[in-house]
Specification:
The structure is a homodimer. By secondary structure, chain A is an alpha/beta fold. Helix content of chain A is 34%, strand content 28%. Chain A has 3 domains: 149 residues, NAD(P)-binding Rossmann-like Domain (Rossmann fold, 3-Layer(aba) Sandwich); 166 residues, Dihydrodipicolinate Reductase, domain 2, CATH 3.30.360; 97 residues, ACT domain (Alpha-Beta Plaits, 2-Layer Sandwich), CATH 3.30.70.260. Chain A is built from 14 helices and 18 strands. In chain A, the strands form 2 sheets. In chain A, strands 7, 8, 9, 10, 11, 12, 13, 14, 15, 16, 17 and 18 form a 12-stranded mixed sheet that branches. In chain A, strands 3-2-1-4-5-6 form a 6-stranded parallel sheet, with helices on both faces.
């Protein structure tokens, strides 16, 4: 019953692929295997003209025709209709994409580092020639989030995005949560299993998530958000006991990218930040396990939306890249200029100090009468109001505390777990500093923000 | 720091709105209140030229300028650049949209009934003039699902969609599940609260979900799926004891729209069906509560994705409509022809009998020796293999059974809950008929399919 397919009936578009790593080799494979099907959907025949790589003899994840490989990216780019950049890094990726745009090609990229640092330059170059930059794969892997933010929610006002956008850190935190394992142990395991790089800094210190946060915030708030405006904290200081305490209070710890519309001094602004935060176990984001990603979006009219799926992986990310290739091909066939970026709102990004949030603070204190009063008075002087206090007595044999409502007996140390009410971040962090300097506080064990309430 | 905004700097586009019900009045309100912001995003000034309604004096959800209202839809349509149809029903909606397309306008509609029955006609009319039909609001309300399927996944192969796409039935089933209430009781409550219509047939009999299933399947499989190819069953026969039994087996009952790529006699086909099904409580769809919607998509490369949010509601749906209006405006500014529908795969839709699924069958049987053997032999003759059997003895005082592993004593009736292995639907339903006709079976209490395993 199916019609005979023939890509011959379509206009042929030359597709150049730059890079043949985990994602690139899958993109090439799918382009070659599903050519007829993709042609029917795009209304154009997608001819893989070549694959530019540094080393044509390197081993690839998928076997591909040797004659497609070249080290001469520039010759491949010139004369192509669609250029897919999956090399990563800033240069030569950026130069190649600018060359592609100036040669009249539409470009598809998954390069979050490049977009977060030089996106404006690329978008402007595309604008000048009426081409488009597609980058669905640059944030949250296979999860369609770019089009929903750019198009579906273009008539709405996004209030807040909370995203689990880094699979490695979610994998690590999830295993720490389910197994009680410690960070170093799970990281080593993740490296063995290929979930984390040999140098895990980009993931565990939140750099990767910060790049994605800048991309998502730019789209959501129609504003260019520079990467250095993103506040960033990683997960290396998260301990099993922090996860244990979080659980006891009904929370799970997730590395979140938070993009928020806030009003500061009466004017509309945005805050973009990445940090490990406490999320209620009843929040939809709490049930995002393993290396999965999810983006939770709150908009004025649409209400709460969530987008969930694989955040990484070669073939998964290749799906997002190929969706962009089909879109680019359709635009080539349809004619007209590409739709440019929408950054006219141009809202200022404010420093973290202006953000309204609430803290969960764990202190190690002298176990003697009057300590709680002293701590409470420091909090009150800092303008921070207390919502909950739990006191536990440290058991030195296990290093973990047991909950206690008995009066302190002056014989050692105790833990105070203080949940504050919402306050400005600056007041909260100043108060934590004051607590750290206080005579009765032996140690500030941990400070975590609560999100998603 | 924000730039001064001025919609005067943009080309003006005339927007006509047809219908001012729950969604339409919110769309008009947002267009009027956020005009400058929308202009910045669209690159065009969106001028609400008028609102066509049957009765200009009817009470609206939102107060709107009286001078915008007209009963003359045709005059409003001619000369408009974008026409938003939110009247519902087939005529005059269809005639109005065809007039709009033939007058050179792009059209935005949330009319699932019209799209599911006359979509092809609209898309062809749009194709002929190079215009576009936008309909993000027609399936799953505010949840962006149309663009992800049409664009983001255009380079992938969707294997299966399982959607909770009707908020009313999810609200009813969720309350039955959490409160143990019966269908009629919760339906009456839902009607009082405005979650269900006075005539609830379209929702509870699955007609609304079937329309959305046809739309989603058409997009996902690049195939025109006619509404009458969708197998449809409603939820009116779901009882509290079925929900109770489902819970005991680790399931929750959800009304699902299932769109599936299947191979029949060696050739690729699709199945589209709507019915109440058992879903494991660990499946992401199980935690979709209240009137929310969610669409779970499995694709060959992307893996599992889920899209979650509000499936209905005036202002929520208005968000999706306005996203489409901004997209239409951008296309007007960019030039070129609209991107047509992709239906070249043209896969046949097969009847439900070909589907491979598995059943959970509850039987009322004579409580005497040999019954299980007789039932097992009927199943085996039908080619249906048994995965689990639970026998309970009916307690006539409560009407519910208690689990029993004791041998039947011949003194009354017992229940057999049989979970089958996967088999062709035809074999399963034939076997249920044979069971119903069997001497030892007093009554087939319920038959439910299991999905999402």
């Amino acid at each position: 019953m199916t019609q005979p397919r023939s890509s011959d009936q379509y206009r042929r578009l030359r597709v150049a692929l730059l890079g043949a790593g985990a994602v690139g080799s899958q993109v090439a494979d799918l382009l070659l295997r599903h050519g007829d099907e993709l042609a029917d959907r795009a209304g154009a025949s997608l001819e893989l003209a070549g694959i530019a790589v540094r080393d044509v003899d390197a081993k690839r994840d998928v076997e591909l025709p040797a004659e497609l490989f070249t080290t001469d990216a520039e010759s491949l780019i010139v004369g192509s209709d669609i250029v897919i950049e999956l090399m990563g890094g800033i240069e030569p990726a950026k130069g190649n994409l600018l060359l592609a745009l100036n040669s009249g090609a539409d470009v598809v990229t998954a390069n979050k580092a490049l977009l977060a640092t030089h996106g404006t330059e690329l978008f402007e170059a595309a604008d000048q020639v009426g081409a488009s930059v597609y980058y669905e794969a640059a944030a949250a892997g296979a999860i369609p989030i770019i089009r929903p933010l750019r198009d579906s929610l273009a008539g709405d006002r996004v209030v807040r995005i909370m995203g689990i956008v880094n699979g490695t850190t979610n994998y690590i935190l999830d295993r720490m949560d389910t197994e009680g394992a410690d960070f170093a142990e799970v990281l080593a395991d993740a490296q063995r299993l290929g979930y984390a790089e040999a140098d895990p800094t980009a993931d565990v210190e939140g750099y990767d998530a910060a790049q994605k946060a800048a991309i998502l915030a730019s789209l959501a708030f129609h504003t260019t958000v520079p990467l250095d405006a993103v506040h960033r904290e990683g997960i290396t200081s998260i301990t099993p006991s922090m996860i244990e305490e979080a659980r006891a209070a009904g929370f799970v710890i997730k590395l979140l990218a938070v993009c928020e519309r806030i009003t500061v001094d009466g004017s509309e602004s945005i805050s973009v930040r990445v940090y490990p935060a406490l999320v209620s176990r009843t929040h939809p984001l709490a049930s995002v396990h393993g290396a999965n990603n999810a983006v939770f979006v709150e908009a004025e009219a649409a209400g709460s939306l969530m987008f969930y799926g694989a955040g990484a992986g070669g073939v998964q990310t290749a799906s997002a890249v190929l969706g962009d290739v089909v879109s680019a091909a359709r635009r080539h066939i349809a004619g007209g200029v590409g739709v440019g970026e929408s950054t006219r709102a141009n809202l200022p990004t404010v420093p973290i100090g202006h953000v309204i949030t609430r803290y969960q603070i764990t202190l190690e204190v002298d176990d003697q009468p009057g300590v709680l009063a002293a701590v409470a008075s420091t909090l009150s002087e800092g303008g921070v109001s207390v919502a909950t206090v739990v006191q536990t007595v440290d058991d030195p044999s296990t290093g973990s505390g047991t909950e206690s409502s008995a009066p302190a007996d002056g014989s050692g140390t105790a833990r105070l777990i203080i949940g504050t009410h919402r306050a400005a971040e600056q007041a909260l962090s100043d108060t934590v500093e004051a607590l750290a300097a206080s005579d009765v506080v032996e140690r500030v064990v941990s400070v975590l923000r609560v999100e998603g309430e």
